[in-house]
Every structure is written in structure tokens, then in C-alpha cells.
Design goal:
The chain is mainly alpha-helical. 66% of the residues lie in helices and 0% in strands.
Length: 105
């Protein structure tokens, strides 16, 4: 049986790592399964900064409780980056985080 996260991991490896690390898709899945906080933050930041579809891959790879913690921590550290606020709004449904992308009424 194939892990449903595998497709996202393969895309993330291609879009976000550019050969700078020696990680396989299975290595990433194993480390996600071990719930290594440092690795989770590392992978999350790579996806946020480099993925073409970060919300999709983050949802596929991180359970909601882990995702919430990672997002909160990253928002505190990254400040007011528009891209991050848009991703956060998409992941949480709190569209007040990115008011400049809301339709005008």
C-alpha cells in the first residue's frame, strides 16, 4: 500500500530542495512519522518559502495539531510577509490575516 503523502513529498523534493540535501522521499516520510520537531520546522519552512502550492503540501504532510503549532511559530518569526499571511489565511480559513487579498465590498 502506498502512503498517500508520497506524491506531495516527491513534489516538495523537486520544488524545494534543488539537490542541496541528501534526502529521499522515504527519509522525509520516516522523519515526519517520528514527529521530529526540528525536522518538521525545517520542512515546513522549505515548503513555505519554495513550493508553488504550499497549502496543499502542508495539509497533506502535517497533522492539524502539528500544523497549527508550526504555523503559529513561523508567523511569529517571519513577520509580515504577504506570502506567509496568504498561506496562513488559506490553511486556517482566517482571511483577516491577508486583508489585501479579500474582495472589496
Amino acid at each position: 500500500m502506498t502512503d498517500p503523502r508520497m506524491a506531495s513529498v516527491k513534489v516538495v523534493l523537486q520544488e524545494c530542495f534543488w539537490g542541496e540535501y541528501n534526502l529521499s522521499a522515504q527519509d522525509i516520510l520516516n522523519r515526519l512519522d517520528r514527529n521530529e520537531p526540528g525536522f518538521n520546522r525545517f520542512l515546513f519552512s522549505k515548503i513555505i518559502e519554495n513550493s508553488r502550492h504550499p497549502s496543499q503540501h502542508i495539509r497533506n504532510l502535517f497533522p492539524p495539531a502539528v500544523l497549527e503549532d508550526l504555523l503559529e511559530r513561523y508567523l511569529e518569526q517571519a513577520g509580515e510577509k504577504k506570502r506567509l499571511r496568504l498561506i496562513a489565511a488559506n490553511l486556517t480559513g482566517n482571511h483577516n490575516q491577508a486583508p489585501e487579498y479579500q474582495w472589496r465590498r
